[in-house]
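hey can u run this one w/ flavin-adenine dinucleotide bound, need the structure tokens asap thx
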Amino acid sequence: MLQDVALNCFNITQSYLSIDAGNVLATSGHVIRQTQEAIQTSRQYLLQDIFTRWDPFNGDISFSYNGGKDCQVLLIIYLGCLWEFFLSSIEGSQYGPQFHKFPLQQLPTVYIDQEDTFDTAQEFLQASVDRYYLSLYESAKDKKIDMPSAFESFLTVHPETEAIVIGVRHADPFGESLRPIQKTDPSWPQFYRLQPLLHWNLSQIWSFLLYSGEEMCGLYEMGFTSLGSVNNTVRNPYLRVPEPIASFTKADTKHSDFQWEIENNFRGDSKTHFNKINETDLTKIRNHDASEFHPGWYLTKDEWERAGRLAKK
Ligand code: FAD
Ligand code: MG
Ligand code: MG
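ok here u go:
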């Protein structure tokens, strides 16, 4: 039930926040401390600024989700905050939470099916629907329809939507000047954009997601760092072994910064979890480049995150 997964996400977040960063190895401790602050800021946006203005339980808010690492991080934090919001709504009741009905059975989410994505990414999206109890609106697949038009169609089906959560970060293209709560641009259908993840950097994303022990999209394990269309996305060249590209310095990717997070993950099995790479994808990826690649989280330089994106043909 959504209730159980919201509680679990609350527990993941609380567990991360209670890591004694001072007792962790020098580099990881530093990232963990920063990530703890990033989580607290996102929680404040959600609990104090957003849920007080739009009711997350009555359809005011939808969540834009494509299975990528950023919106998955935000989803975990968002669901944890839903649990907290539920608890605060029954505060003062003489009965414990187990005697109150959680007001939502599925989380309203929206996916714009525009690009030719990898089958693995598509399969991960479907797995997320089951794991996180998403009620997923999928736009009609049509590459000629741009994103604003796709959201216009979405709003005709879900006119109750007043605001949409987006896992965009300042480091994303055109992300620099975005704000946590803002209206859409004039050329877009009008609704509020809720962007509580803007201030997160790549290291913080990996640290939290690897610690969660949640299953991630399998493409990341193969050396992808950013998921785009199957026609213009390859594994990140900075992660290629053993002959890295020219401007690469070994220190940047020779090891994972997140060994501590993996060994001490919330799931308790000291492992990473991914959905299975689809066979067609595997053939395509290996045919393009037979080299081995480090997993995506060996790369923590925000500027290099999209180095695996080719110019659009
Ligand atoms: P990514 O890291 O791939 O995506 C960032 C986030 O966007 C994801 O975490 C996810 O929440 C969402 N997202 C990306 N792709 C999809 C998808 N196919 N289906 C569902 N969600 C997805 N740009 C403007 O210039 N003006 C606007 O007013 C504006 N409004 C937007 C409103 C919404 C609801 C969304 C989802 C996007 C909007 N955008 C707008 C575009 C946005 O700023 C990003 O450029 C866009 O999300 C693509 O991100 P990315 O691929 O660069 O990064
Ligand atoms: Mg992203
Ligand atoms: Mg994208």
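The mean pLDDT is 93. anyway lmk if its weird
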